[in-house]
Amino acid sequence: MTLGGIDLIALTATLMVSSTPVLLAALGELVVEKSGVLNLGVEGMMIMGAIGGFAAAVMTGSPAVGFAAGALAGMGMALLFGVITQILLANQVATGLALTLFGLGLSALFGKGFEGIRPPQTARIDFGGLADLPVLGPILFSHDWVVYFSLFAVGAVGLFLSRSRAGLILRAVGENHDAAHALGYRVVAVRLAALAFGGAMAGLGGAYLSLVRVPQWTEGMTAGAGWIALAIVVFAGWRAGGVLLGAYLFGGVTALQLRLQAAEYAIPVQLLSMAPYLITIIVLVAISALHARGRQAAPAALGRSFHASR
Amino acid sequence: MKRRTFLSTTAALGALSLGLPGLAQAQEPLKVGFIYVGPVGDMGWSYQHEQGRQAIEAEFGDRVQTTYMESVPEGPDAERALTQLALAGNSLIFATSFGYMDAVMNVAAKFPNVKFEHATGYKRAENVATYDARFYEGRAIQGTIAGRMTKTNKIGYIGSFPIPEVVQGINAAFIHARKVNPAVEMKVVWAYTWFDPAKEADAAAALIAEGCDVVMQHTDSTAPQAKAQEAGNVITFGQASDMSAFAPMPRVGSTIDDWAPYYIERVGKMLDGTWTSDATWGGIGSGMVGIGEITSAVPAEVKAEALAMADAIGKGEYHPFTGPLNKQDGTPWLAAGETPDDGQLAGLDFYVEGITAELPK
Amino acid sequence: MIHLERRRAASRFWTLAVPVVAVLATMLAGAGLFAALGKPPAEALRMIFWDPLLGPNAEYFRGQLLVKAGPLILIACGLAVGFRAGIWNIGAEGQYIVGALSGAAVALALWPAESPLIFPTMVLAGALGGWAWAMIPAFLKTRFGTSEILVSLMLVYVAQNLLAYMAFGPMKNPQGFGFPGSRNLQQYPSAHNAELIAGSGLHWGVVAALLAVIGTHLLMSRHLLGFRIRVAGEAPRAARFAGVSPARLIRFCLGLSGALAGVAGMFEVAGPSGQITDSFNANYGFTAIIVAFLGRLNPWGILAAGLLMALTYIGGDLAQLMLGLPAAAIQAFQGMLLFFLLAFDLLTQYRIRWKGART
Q1: Same domain as B235, residue B174
Q2: Is residue A299 part of a domain?
Q3: Do residues B320 and B201 both lie within one domain?
């Protein structure tokens, strides 16, 4: 299936892989923001996941160990953020920015000596004949397990937030922490748990970048992916399904503009690269206009510190 | 007034090395500084300059003392870094990115006794030399190999930015691929980055999906190599560094920036007092451009052809841009047997005839 | 069990002691980091904190301190006013870029004409550009209630792409041999934001930063508007009863911080940087957010925080140069410093109490 010389099926299969790191990180950040915490340090957590995962995979020879280590590294960073903002009550915006700075520096230090090495290969899942199906084969049955995990996680996070009791508590904490506290919920514990999950997902996304997508380790290799993850959460209007759409849109625009160039369309690359952000703003305005003077899509307590006065 | 303060402190720091060059060299090591635009571990551009720095240390031992600053952004930070290097008593400073150009000129004006070397720029002064490599010579050889080996007759090229250096490379690769294989087409994708592994991987994937079975890159990460490897039947060439981790397939050859011979030569000239402000544009002949090992994946006769061309270019018997050549729009550029002068090449801003893509303006 | 008790007013003692304690803690942790990397810790710390101020060639570094701190302070002052009112502009980076583009556009359009009016016009254009970019989130906030945090952040990326587009397209130097980047405004006398005293680092941007500190101080402590801003931030409902219009406040705060970020960008492009290039923005807009918080949203605190931040940049470069510390170690060190400063700040607002288990 081609359109204007672009093979849409191959494009879809490519963008699924290239969007997976930001999809994982954005899902994590979604849960964090739903609990009322704004962690701008996604980039720092991702890059720590990238080096943590890469180093562990190279040393053990096992990509699975690598992904686990990447998730742990991201979680460690998130808990550092959690301690400073939730227990020591520092401002979240400033701490998140500092976390990114710290992560970029620390990962580069840990990464000395890992440059130019090839990681063990992450196998694709073998679906046998299914992979040869037209259209569906390349899109659905040709990936590694992390891609499927990311899709599973979209569903799981969506259900968790909308259907489970724990998800309800998490949202309550994010909407009004004082009320949640008055009801007896442990605001700080909930938020730390959300942060740990968010960090693990960002770390996993980073590890996917260094182990599969690129695959290699180099300093600063996330190159802004963490910031895109933040944009995606907003674009999604804080819904898991929207995160999937947003991640594929943001990943798709990059893949598409490169494909358009390869097919010899003269396109203004920079102007096209702006598009997803402009769309995000429009979506944001639409959401807030629809909810005018009523409920906002953003968690009401987003970014505010909580201190139980008694 | 300020200048005098600078000079006195510089002289004090660098001991006698500035005041009395002849005497000082016997006792004091020559201090040589470097600033890099990326981290030394980028395995590409900055890494290769760092290799050159280490080669100086190995060559001259105690007679030199080198320092470097990595990840220096272009702009005011570069100006400060260069000043810091000068104040710290370095008497020869290599600024290894195009974007440092105006910063080098500013600092050089303040430190007339310090020599500066600026990579890939075009502004010179009494104490500012420039140097660059004829990367396009390596591209001619890649084009030959690519033209012979491609089965789909589509060659992909990942460009960084549409600047003359990259345009030279695209043209040289295309001309030589066409020469051995008239059916060849060239696809160009601009990544608008020198280094972004994820984006480079996407660019390689886009070219491979377009049917290219050769991917050349003018960006510095090995991500396109990994993508080509995944695809299986695609060949690539190392860029900046040898990228030999991906040999023998997909990487079948490379264009290596080898700054070591030049750096050794220039430091040598500083040591014996014969340094002058020159514009050096080195190529295969002077060893500044290396073509790496051509691997066993390349048929023997193609390899021989490629090596013969490298030899001819190195000896100056053959220029990769030899007429007759037309511009993309069909207007004549070079008459039969004619070669362009360096000034013309340095400002090259058009594709040659036969490339169908449009060069972004 | 440890329990935090909110103080009625910020502790005077801790307000002054926290920065000292945090810097000391960072020194300890940093010393560990440097030692682990095999570098002499004491020397590294001396190079970061002492040498740029009083070491060899300090007269040069002190000037550079102003160059580096100027834009940070200028931007942070504007941001702090908004933050005080609970209006979160985190897109200063974008406003900085657009201000620089606007200022440079004026200069590039008039090149090579010489006139004393060009520079003031550029300042105006820079302020206007930053203001206009900030009015987008302000308008969306007042009209639709859209979060200004997120809109201003998204607009940073739009501005970055706009910057790249300009550097490669319309603003490209026609005499630049096809290389990206505009003409260098340092070589255009009427547009050049030159040092006022050669070698001092003092340019109009630094003067503007000092004026911004004084201006913000007067606004916040002497002016009715400053009072309203504080009330709006601390007790939004009370503010509404007191007749403060939230929409006007939003427009004022975002507009002010945008304009200051815009002129900061303009002074930078016309002075130390000289050129519009695709990597022109050096994260000043984001770093300024940290500076604003380190300075506790107080103009004098911001002045100190901006200088401290600049010190770690310049001293960090020095340590890299003299000791061969990797650039990444400096980044990690800066990160630690910020963590400690932010974390210890708790002590100014809260009292730590020990109390028995009681539920």
Answers
A1: yes
A2: no
A3: yes
Mean model confidence pLDDT for chain B = 88
Nearest-Cα distance to chain A for C135, in Å, is 14
pLDDT at C355: 64
- The total of other beta-carbon atoms located within 10 Å of residue A118's CB is 15
CB-based contact B77 C282, cutoff 8 Å? yes
C328: nearest CA partner in chain A: A105
**Domain count across chain B:** 2
ipTM: 0.86
Number of structural domains (chain A) is 1
Q: Are B131 and B275 in contact (CB under 8 A)?
A: no
Strands (E), B86-190: 92-95, 115-119, 128-133, 154-159, 185-190
B122 and B47: one domain? yes
Q: CB C326 to CB B73 under 8 A? A: no
Separation CA C283–CA C129 (nearest Å): 18
Q: Using DSSP, state whether B238 is helix, strand or coil.
A: strand
Beta carbons within 10 angstroms of residue B360's beta carbon: 17
The pLDDT value given to residue B8: 39
What are φ and ψ of residue C330, in 5° steps?
A: -65, -40
Q: Answer yes or no: is B263 within a domain.
A: no
Q: What is the pLDDT of residues A184-237, one digit of tens each?
A: 999 999 999 999 999 999 999 999 999 988 888 888 888 888 988 988 998 888
What digits encode the pLDDT tens for the residues A137-173? 777 777 889 999 999 999 999 999 999 999 999 999 9
CATH number of the CATH domain containing A82: 1.10.3470
Q: In terms of CA atoms, which chain B residue is nearest residue C180?
A: B163
Residue C307 near residue C52, CB atoms below 8 Å: no
Nearest-CB residue to A109 (from C153, C155, C326): C326
Residues B203 and B336 in one domain: yes
Domain finish residue from B132, B165, B195: B132
Tokens of A301: 């307590």
Instruction: Give me the domain span that covers residue A228.
Output: 2-290
Q: Is residue B212 part of a domain?
A: yes
Which residue among B114, B132, B150 closes a domain?
Answer: B132
C57 and chain B in contact, CB less than 8 A: yes
Q: Which domain holds residue B165?
A: 135-256+288-346
The 8-class DSSP code of residue B42 comes to G
- Say which of C154, C286, C333 has its CB closest to residue A97: C286
CB contact under 8 A, C321 and B88: yes
Tell me the average pLDDT across B130-147: 95
B218 and B123 in a single domain? The answer is no
Domain membership of residue A297 (yes or no) is no
Residue A296 belongs to a domain: no
Strand pairing partners for C242? none
- The contact set of A with B (CB < 8 A) is 7, 10-11, 14, 18, 21, 108, 111-112, 115-118, 209, 213-216, 218-221, 223, 225, 254-255, 258-259, 261-264, 266, 269-270
Structure tokens at A232: 């995606």
* Terminal alpha carbon distance of chain B: 45
Instruction: For residue C203, give Cα distances in angstroms to C73, C267, C306.
Output: 14, 8, 16
B125 beta partners: B128
DSSP state of A125: P
3-class DSSP assignment, residue B54: helix
Size of interface A-B (CB pairs under 8 A): 99
- The enclosing domain of B169 has a CATH number of 3.40.50.2300
B73 lies in the same domain as B119: yes
Q: What's the sign of the alpha-carbon dihedral B258, B263, B265, B266?
A: positive
- Would B163 be classed as within a structural domain? yes
Helices B135-149 and B164-180: angle between axes, nearest 10 degrees: 30
Mode of pairing for the β-strands spanning C350-354 and C2-6:
antiparallel
Tell me, yes or no, whether B170 and B204 share the same domain: yes
pLDDT digits (tens, 9 = 90+) for C106-117: 999 998 889 999
